[in-house]
Every structure is written in C-alpha cells, then in structure tokens.
Amino acid sequence: MRMSKMFSQTLREAPSAADCKGYEFLLRAGFIRQMGAGIFSLLPLGYKSTAKIEGIIREEMDSLDGQEILMPLVNPADIWKETGRYYSIDKEMSRFNDRRGSDMVLAMTHEEDATSLGRTEINSYKKLPQLIYQIQTKWRDDARPRAGLIRVREFTMKDSYSFDRDQAGLDEQYKKHYASYFRIFSKAGLPVIVVGADSGMMGGKVSHEYMYLSPIGEDTIMTCEHCGYTANKQVAKFQKKYYKEEAKVIEKIATPDCKTIVDLCNLLNIETHQCAKAVFMMATFINDKSGEEEEKLVVAQIRGDLDIEENKLQNILKANSIRPAHEEEIRAAGIVPGFGSAIGCSDKAIIIVDDSVAKSNNLVAGANEEGYHLLNTNFKVDYTGKVADIASAKNGYTCSVCNHELKVSKGVEVGNIFQLGTRYSEAMNCYFTDIDGKSKPVVMGSYGIGVGRLLATLAEEYNDERGLSLPISVAPYQVHFLSLMKDKEIGEKIYTDLMAAGIEVLYDDRKESAGVKFADADLIGLPIRITLGNKSYIEGSAEVKLRSNLDETFNYSLDTLVDDVKKEVKKLQDEITNNIVHKELEI
RNA sequence: CGGAAUGUCGCCUAGUGGCUAUGGCGCUUGCUUUGGGAGCAAGAUAUCGGAGGUUCGAGUCCUCUCAUUCCGACCA
User: Fold this and answer.
1) pLDDT of residue A199
2) CA–CA separation, A160 vs A113, rounded Å?
3) What CATH code would you report for A251-388?
4) Residue A138, nucleotide of least CA–C1' distance
5) Helices A451-461 and A44-63 meet at what angle, rounded to 10?
6) How many angstroms separate the CA of A493 from the C1' of B72?
7) DSSP string across A260-291
8) CB within 7 A of strand B (chain A, 5-44)
C-alpha cells in the first residue's frame, strides 16, 4: 500500500476524547474514527488489524471443528420471548417494530438464534457433537460507553455455540475452548489471565472470563499469587474468620443516635465483627413467560466487618435485578432504618444471611425500634433465613484455597466461555433423540471474544510515547518502507520487489520531509521498518529497524534486502509461535 | 438512569456583552528544502451544536433541546 494513496490521515494532536494511550494512538494513527457514543468506524489500518485478529480466531475455531456461519443481527422478538430474555433484559436490548407492527430486536448475543438453528438441524444423537461460530456485529445499548473500543455499543464479536448429548460432551467442548482461547490471545500477543466468573444474563452455571490486566479495566479481579486462584470479584470466595462462642440471652439496650456500625462499636466498646449489619435491597423478579414484574424487599444480614457483594446476593435470590431500598420501602415492612435487622420481619421480606453471621454468636443487631439495639442475637434462635455467602472480597483477605493473601486488580474482559447446559434448549424445545430412543434437550455452551476490544487492549499493551507497536501477527502490515530519496524509481523497485516476495508493505512514497515520515512510522508502529536514504544507498544498503527497539539499526545490503526482510518477518512470526500459551482446564 | 462538564473550520485552541471571530496543525498554489513533525510567500475553509429569549448590540447572559465526555449505577 502506498501512503500517498491511503484513505486515512494521521493526527498530530490527540482528539480530546482520547482518555487512554491505546485509544489515543488508534485515533492518531488513523485506525479508527468515532461516529457516535460507542459507535466506531474501522479505517483501512484498523480493518487490516481486525482482519488479522479474525484470521487467528478462525484458524483456532476451525481447529476445534467449528463451522463458520452467519446469523442475523435483526431478530424477530418471538425467539427472545421463548427464553424470556425479551422481558428480563432491560433497555440494553434495542427493540423496534417492523412495518407490519411485529416486535423485532437487535441481537445483542445469539444464544436464541443458535438454539433456533439447533432445533431444526439437530434431531439425533448421530448429529452430535456440533460447534458453530460466527464473527458478527452485536448491538448493546450500553448506558455508558467509554475508553474508545474498550466499551462500545456496536461491536464485532466471535461467538461460538456448542451442542452436545450430555454434560460430558459439553465439558469436552468447554475444555477445548478454554485451551483454544489461550492460544488465540497469545497468538495475538495479548497477555491474559482466566478467572472464575459470574454467568450474568447468560444464566449458565460454569463460566470463565479471560482478562487483560490493566488499570483501564472495569472488572475487578481477585487473585492469589500463592496458589493461582483467580476470580471476578463478583463471585470471589475468601476465607472468613468465625467467632464462635456460647450463645447468650438476647437483651434490648438503648443506643440513641447510633445509626452506623462505627457509632455502635464506639458506644458499646466492641469490634465491628461483633455486630450484625442489615442491608435492605429491593429485588425485581420477572416472570419469563408473561414478562410480569414483581418487587420484593430483601434483608441481607451480614457481619459488621464485611460488606455485601450485590452480585452474589442477586444470584442467591435468582432476581433479575436488585437495588438499594428506599427508606419508605423499609419502613413499610416495619423496619426502622439505622436500627433495623432481620429480626421479626420474616413474613415481610426475603431474609438472606451471610454465613459469617450464621456461624457467629451474640451479635449486636438492630431492634427495629428507634434508638434501640439488641445484644446477643443468634441466628436460628432469634430469626431464620437462607444462609449463603454474600460477602464482598477485598484486597488482603484470605484465600479460601491456600490461606494466603488475595490481591485485587483491574482487568478488561476480552473473552468468556459459558456452560449453558439446557437453559436454552429446554426453553426453545431444542431436543434430540438419543440412542436409547428418548428425547433429550441438547446440552449447550457459548463462547465469546470481542474482536474490537481485543484490538483496543493490544493497542493499550503495545505502545510507547511515540505510538503503537503491535505484534506482527496483528499489525496491519509487516513492513513500513520509507524512501527518503529524491529518486523515486529506486524506492518503487524495492517496493515492487518486497510485494512480489509476498511481504506486506506500507510504502511511504509521499512528498514529505523525513521527519514527518519517521513520526508517522513511529505512530503507526509497523514491526519492521526499512529506511532508504541517499547515504545508505551510496553504500549499497538500506537501514532496518524494529519498532520494538528503535535504538538499534541494522544495515542490510540492497542485493539481499528482500530475502533478509523475509527472514526477519519469519523470525518475528516464529517468536510468536514459540510463545503460544498451552493451558488446559482441569475440572 | 442519577451527578458534573463541554460543544468555536478536518484536529487542537483563543474569546469574560461592543468594530469584519484568534492562533497553531492540517489543506491548496508557487519557490526553496529533503535523515526526526522544514522555510518563505500567497490562499481557501466556521450559519460559534440547534431553537427560542433578554439586550441598542449575544460566540459570550437566560430557557429549552441535541450531542459528546467524565464520575457513579449498569455492563458478555
């Protein structure tokens, strides 16, 4: 490609919206342009990189016997009503009516489509297992797009869907994806860790997320360096301390103006772990069949030294959403905010008790009476409720596996794998006849990789103060060839020779000063740079530099330039191949 | 969806009620230059996001609206 003909231009100054380095350079180098909030165009350079990423993904999916298909972006709402997600997903899914007035949606993922295809194509165990995948546009009307391609509304995603006879089959396809994703990310050059995850709206059981660790990330991840335990904070387990003692008799005491745990501890001269804190939430339950909504008050009882992890609570409740309750809603159940507890309200609210409370004794809790608390409250004696882990993991907490310290980090989710089980096949009647003649629901899995997000994280990982420096596997071209000579013919010949040798070249043939050409080459950051100038030409050579190390210069003889560059390309590619991560899931 | 901020040429930016709206980058033309974002000269490009209002006078003040960004809620 000749730079004189290239559609995009580089920007000397960063547009003000660029809030992180990777985004700034993708804009300045001319990879992407914004159209609206969370809506981007890929320019030629960005599209080339994206195509390379997709190539890596295709190669891997094909190696898992995946078959590429393409499902529609616009879906009739009917299939989404079948699974209930038409009702349970809020404004994030965009809906509209077609000219006949039919309900339509823009697909934000394709479980419904895939299951719909599955039920028409798969009728016998003989057709299983299957794996289909697509690389396709998704639309999610996210309330808060940010950080360039990191969090967008319209994006390209590779999503695959597995179909199996049974759990064992699913386990196998799941494991294959688990290992394959490590290969994909390492081929692209992105360091990732895998974490145990919440399955969120997918509604499955087992799931993992692939995280690129970075301060720009929005997900919070707990890791244990000692044993390797990693989990999304939303589901992270940790080892709690329990304070077991002889149960004493409950006693009411006056605690005027003590509305917080800290006030209470100061007044009574006790530790926070000797209190039981009540957190009041409103949970929304949506009926999958009718779409009817119901709100219920939830009292979450947790020990005073811990905080509620709302995500864990929502999962225990199997609620569609939860939010903090308003004061009037709390009072309506006869509970006094500031002096509230689960005691005496089992008929008015759902009570969830963290095991920290269930396994401790003689905790101080609210008396549900203005200005009073209760000493020595004990679970099961004074109140009951469902016991679960609803506590939020924090930095420095103890790992539940090995008792070492957990560390908190930020990450960007670039991929995920879910075991869906029969959630979708049962809801959508995707059944097959097994060898025993019985009709059984297909066991499914779904697996996603955000293509644009992967480009964004790569740009974040591979940059310096001058610009991008993408690995050769995902860079838009392998070689940037700068001719600084007045004589155009020599440059043209080298360009033509490089192209003929199958090397991907961006040729800077513009009438620009050397400084401009160097600055743009730094910005776009192609892995190998060839510079042809008068000085080196007289010596019969050209200069070669690697973008990853601009301080070092090699002089390549013009006679053997093409072959030498070809070797250099091969060398860089081999480095990536040699560093492919092989990691298996142990279940 | 709550809170905040910002909209001036393709990008960055000046502007604090008063003449024909700054400057830089980029763009066009010519000459010079050609190893790190060149120099000289001449040009073009802005209904100051939109609508309404206050005022003798509005880019500037007010109201509404649209858009974008940030913080939070949310998020595969």
Assistant:
1) 57
2) 12
3) 3.90.960.10
4) B76
5) 110
6) 58
7) SHHHHHHHHT--GGGBEEEEEEEEEEE-TTT-
8) 9-17, 19, 28, 34, 36-39
Give, in Å, how far the C1' of B25 lies from the CA of A240. 59
pLDDT of A50 reads 95
CATH superfamily of A27-189+423-460: Bira Bifunctional Protein; Domain 2 (3.30.930.10)
Alpha carbon A444 to its chain's center: 20
Reading the block at residue A231, the tokens are 């989990």
**In A 495-554, which Cβ lie closer than 7 Å to strand B?**
511-516, 518-523, 531-536, 543, 550, 553
- Residue A553: which nucleotide is closest by CA–C1'? B35
A 373-412 residues, CB < 7 A, strand B = none
Domain boundaries, chain A: 27-189+423-460, 251-388, 477-571
- Round to a whole number and report the distance in Å from the CA of A33 to the C1' of B61: 36
Q: Does domain A477-571 have CATH number 3.40.1360.10?
A: no
**CA distances (Å), origin A487, targets A491, A493, A511, A532:** 8, 11, 11, 11
Gap from A17 CA to B55 C1', in Å? 36
Q: For residue A198, what pLDDT is reported? A: 65
Q: Whole-number Å distance, CA A219 to C1' B72?
A: 15
Q: With CA atoms as reference, report the closest residue to A8 among A62, A59, A44, A53.
A: A44
Q: Measure A524 CA to B6 C1' (Å).
A: 30
Which pLDDT does position A587 carry in this prediction?
A: 64
Tell me the Cα Rg of chain A: 29
pLDDT at residue A332 in the model? 72
**What number is the ipTM of this complex?**
0.91
pLDDT averages per 10-residue partition of chain A, 587 residues: 90 84 92 92 94 97 96 93 86 89 92 94 95 95 88 94 94 94 96 78 71 88 83 80 78 75 73 78 73 75 79 76 74 74 74 77 75 76 76 80 84 92 92 94 95 94 93 96 88 93 94 91 95 89 93 92 95 95 84
Residue at shortest CA–C1' distance from B68? A37
